[in-house]
Amino acid sequence: MRSLLLERDFPVGDIRFLASARSAGTTLQWGDREVEVEDTSTADWSGIDVALVSAGKTASLEHSPKMVAAGATVIDNSSGWRMDPDVPLVVPEVNAQALNDIPKGIVANPNCTTMAAMPVLAPLHAEAGLRSLTVATYQAVSGAGLAGVEELASQVAAVLDGAPGLTHDGRAVEFPEPSSFARNIAFNVLAHAGSFVDDGRGETDEEQKLRNESRKILGFPTWRSPEPVFESQCSPATRCPSTPSSTTQSAPIGPPSYWPPPPAWRWPTSRRRSTRPVWTRPSWDGSDPTRHDPTA
Length: 296
Known about the structure:
Blueprint: H1 2-7, E1 17-19, E2 27-30, E3 33-39, E4 50-53, H2 57-69, E5 73-76, H3 92-95, E6 106-108, H4 112-128, E7 130-132, H5 146-159, H6 205-218, E8 257-258, E9 264-266, E10 278-280
Parallel strand pairs: 1-3, 4-5, 5-6
Antiparallel strand pairs: 2-3, 7-8, 9-10
């Protein structure tokens, strides 16, 4: 975050860094100077114009209202405020207009996978009206914090010499005992990322974030009838797996369905030898049963 502010020449008059008591008193580099980290629990919030908060849900729920009360606008990176109806959930390329109304003085960032998917899905939704999607995300160990990255690195280092044996036998090497993940993450793909939610649906919180946040950003379910559905579900083995990558993530998105059916491709009669199709909208006289009956 610091490097991006510097790289993009963000107009900063003065900057303060705040963290837990454990990090208070240390210093962080800002340009050509060192800035001492303040203790969040005892900090004076006055004089802050914009607060960029990335300290987790619990800390944000506690401290963000205090910053707003002191006059700051908070941009929060945790899941604490995302589904609050009075807090805009913003992907700038998609719904920057939501910043026109910030009732609580807080703006929420979506989850990383949601943020990556929205610039792709929003134009499809605007053109044809998305009705459902099937998404599988493959998420980096950095989602588990520094501990997750260190666990991957330590497991790789511990078994690197014997790693070729894994080609024929998944038990050819003995991995260190995992702590951040349920099984070893090195040379492996785990069938879930995040924590399972005890609501009977068998989902993880990562899967729920993707579904619920996408619905909010795209404006579901405020229009069209019956209510559109946005699902982030796949077979249990391909929901939101964790992968042995430090920071790279991907989200293959299955063929979407639309409400109503989207425009169709056709070959123009005047250009039958052309290799470039033309995008046209099909006509509709109200008799198409699929417009009202998704099962037809």
